[in-house]
Prior knowledge:
It contains four helices and four strands, in the order E-H-E-E-H-H-H-E. It is mainly alpha-helical and 179 residues long.
Amino acid sequence: MEVQEQDTRKKRPQLSPIFIFIVFLGLAAFFLCLASEFQKAKGKYLKWDGESCYLPESQAFRFGTAALVCVSVGQIIGNVVICKGFLKTNKKETAPFRVFLLLFSWVNFAVAAMLIIIGASMNREQKYGKGWLNGECYLVKDGLFASSGVLCVSALGAVLGAFASNVKSSLQPTHKALA
């Protein structure tokens, strides 16, 4: 009995447009978060009239909003593609590592989204007497946007890892027994 390996040269994993698009969105979210970090409102712009404060809107609000859109679209598209792949495979073939990567990506995405939303909203105009919360003005701490950028990249990286492991497992060579 001889075992032959199926020729898989034509089935090499190709970088699909969706894969490239998710990479692009992850990098865009990261760089937009870095731009938000450098453009956030600073203490020197804070005005105080003795009773209440005023803080003008900064560019970090727009950059943070764009970063949130990029990471959200990448997360949703990536998970739709992966879940579509799960539906095509046998339930026994669903690797626990792939499921772990998906859960890890959602946790990172949730934390990154919260950080971006809070940071971006703090960079909107905070009017006299209104402020950001309870009539008080708040400034974003250093590193908030940078850390959310890292979380965006790790979330989409985990999605891409799950996507790649799904493609890799579907391309495993099959063996044929010959008599």
